[in-house]
Amino acid sequence: MSSQETQRPPIPSTLIVRGGTVLDQMGERRADVLIQDGTIREVAEGLHVPAGATVLDAEGCVVAPGLVDLHVHLREPGREESETVESGSRAAALGGVTAVVAMPNTEPPLDSPEAVRNVQRRATDALCEVAVAGAITVGRHGEKLAPMAELAALGVRLFTDDGSGVQSAGLMRRALEYARGLGVTLAQHCEDATLSGNGAMHEGAWSSRLGLSGQPAAAEEVMVARDIALARDTGARLHFLHLSTARSLDLVRRARADGLPVTAEVAPHHFTLTDGCAAGFDPVFKVNPPLRPLHDVEAVKAGLADGTVDAIATDHAPHAPERKDLPFDEAPPGMLGLETSLALAVSELDLPLARILALMSWQPAAIAGLDPGSGGNQGAPVAAGSLANLCVFDPQATWVVEPRHLASLSRNTPYAGRTLRGRVRHTVFRGEPVVKDGEAQR
Predict the structure, then answer these.
(1) Using the 8-state DSSP alphabet, how is residue 2 labeled?
(2) Which backbone phi and psi does 53 adopt, to 5 degrees?
(3) DSSP tag of 6
(4) Are strands 439-440 and 432-436 parallel, antiparallel or unpaired?
(5) Which pLDDT tens digit goes with each residue over 343-398?
(6) Nearest CA to 196 among 245, 253, 265, 137?
(7) Of 52, 76, 238, 383, whose CB neighbour count within 10 A is largest?
């Protein structure tokens, strides 16, 4: 038995979350939540505390379904110095996340049954559910389809070559046709490589001023338009990863108005930061797609408000210091996001809290096929009979982001020193309090 296993506290057979305000897709109500053997048994105000029960104080807090992050890089296998399944799941739990979708651009990529099983095995003792996304193409090279049927048989519901867009329209069309037959969803990283080239940041006034190579907004928008046409042609479900421009979102808005089965996510950094943040050449602000000008940031916020955007997903992308601390144009793109995403949404978005939770819990759960309607247990209402996956957070608590206190093995957060509002107090995963009073329990 490992030292980690010997230190793991027993899962309480009876747990009560007491004194909070329950907020989910059924509305808002003051209630305690009684959990027994991992399942919610009763939700009501003033519940009796059974003898021997573990009590989680939720006074002043919102009790919500656990958050679901559609877009996370756990780096294992291949870059364990940057993150592991275990460390990434701890960061997720501290951020109120009870399920993540692990992207397939690992080393080697997740393009085979063996590779997928490997990550699934590593996730057995994770502090949240780890759903594996499979690659669309072998090696993510965009030349030959991965064995999607075999991966779907292992439970893979989302496929993407994230980090690279599928450049061939013909291959993408075939992939969509296969996906429709399998009942799975393709998720596209929208980037036309012939347009983006080696662009290190958004092509515009700031890239010209700084003398850095730019990546035009059209590199994203061209592929969004192409894949909407392919979704129309095939009828397959298509999810757009980390959209970042006003025109991309307008294309999705029109596609949705036409009844096409397309969904879209945005990342917190695309509604909180602009390309001007790169003025100091700090590579922590390098990300792909790049930070955009203010008018695109405002368009992302508008898309979140009007329903064009279905999910907030972090694109959590840890990098060890020796890789990230390079000149801006040489450093790899990516930022941390798991522990700050909820607080950034609460702090920066002028949206009702219920809307934020929809964007971060039950809507992404449905896209990932992790919701009860798809046979999963994520994003379920806080109600009797649901598996106890809960996020308990104080929407008024303030805190300062300190990289050294984050659970990730990496430190590349662009929010260092920033004061945020909204802090997770407890996270319950399958009935186990994996975070209690802001501290991970294992």
Answers:
(1) -
(2) -75, 145
(3) H
(4) antiparallel
(5) 999 999 999 999 999 999 999 999 999 999 999 999 999 999 999 999 999 999 99
(6) 245
(7) 238
Q: Are 217 and 299 in contact (CB under 8 A)?
A: no
49: left (phi over 0), alpha (psi -120 to 50) or beta: beta
161 classed as catalytic: no
Q: Which two structure tokens, joined as six digits, stand for 332?
A: 């790899």
Which helix (H) or strand (E) covers residue 58, if one does? none
d(CA 287, CA 290): 5
> Considering only 10-14, 69-73, 198-202, 317-321, which range has the smallest mean pLDDT?
10-14
Where does the pLDDT of residue 3 fall: very low under 50, low under 70, confident under 90, or very high at 90 and above?
very low
3-63+384-395+419-440 classified as CATH 2.40.128.120: no
Helix 169-182 and helix 218-234, axial crossing angle in degrees, nearest 10? 50
What are the structural domain ranges in the chain? 3-63+384-395+419-440, 66-374
Cα dist from 229 to 172, 236, 366, whole Å:
11, 11, 23
> 422: helix, coil or strand?
strand
Mean pLDDT estimate for the chain: 96
Residue with tokens 């920033």: 418
Helical segments of 276-395, H only: 294-306, 321-324, 341-348, 353-360, 362-367
Residues in the chain: 442
Structure tokens at 402: 């300190």
Other C-beta atoms within 10 Å of 46: how many?
9
Place of tokens 């890089």: 73
**Terminal alpha carbon distance of the chain:** 15
* β-bridge partners, 201: 214
Q: Is the pTM of this model over 0.85?
A: yes
Q: CATH classification of 66-374 is 3.30.70.100, yes or no?
A: no
- Residue from 111, 161, 310, 315 carrying the catalytic annotation: 315
